[in-house]
Amino acid sequence: AVRTPAARMSSPSPSSTTDTVSKLLALVEPTDRGIAASDSTRAEASSLISALEESWAGTDAFASPYLLRNTEVVYVGQSSSKGSNAAGGKYRGRIGRALFRTDALFQHVLDDVAVNVVQFRLLGLVPGQAILRGAWRRDLDQPELASLRRNSSRPLSPNTIAVAFEAPRVSLFGREGRFVNLQLGPPSSVGLDVTYLDERVRICRGAGSGVPFLFRADSCAQPGAPLNAAAEQWRVCVARP
Q1: Residue 188 pairs with which residues in a beta bridge?
Q2: Per-residue pLDDT, 3
Q3: φ, ψ for residue 214, nearest 5 deg
Q4: Euclidean distance between the first and final Cα of the chain, in Å?
Q5: Where are the alpha helices (DSSP H) in the chain?
């Protein structure tokens, strides 16, 4: 089923949503992007995320100026990440985190491409990154939406996109791919339902899991932002043969 835009009885004030976003960002900051969150922290984050989603229900994500930009992954509402995590895969599982210490985690949705990036240090020393780059599509038909939902009972909104990723690319001994720059592994595909956007953050839910993702733009989207240079390093790597 596709959730259709619904009329709202009243809209929260901009200051109200701004305060909620600020509270959410402060709450998740010490949680290692959700992995170290306690049950109570995860429950509070879920409540704040739901409040923001409800305030934004019925809005067209594709008409927003805030969809297409670089963003940093700051929270994933996954209950356990022993084997892997919905953002970063096995690099963010228990063993992966021990071997590949995470320096940064990004997801960029741009005009013609979506990019997931895990920047790490192998054994805490050797810099590298793993990149998933793929084409994204909107205006999905019912069979596509049903396929993306898998066994989830959560309805998908018209803001759902499908992403077809190429085989992952991995660089080592630097993040620009000068020394080790390999493309290996199978292609993959995912669906994301965009449930909230503003000047600072994007919230999405996995189409098949319903897991919430919180992405922050003000840390990396604009030149001069603290992580802007790191957020752009994938481009040099994938441009190499």
Answers
A1: 165
A2: 56
A3: -115, 125
A4: 42
A5: 14-28, 39-56, 94-99, 142-149, 228-231, 233-239
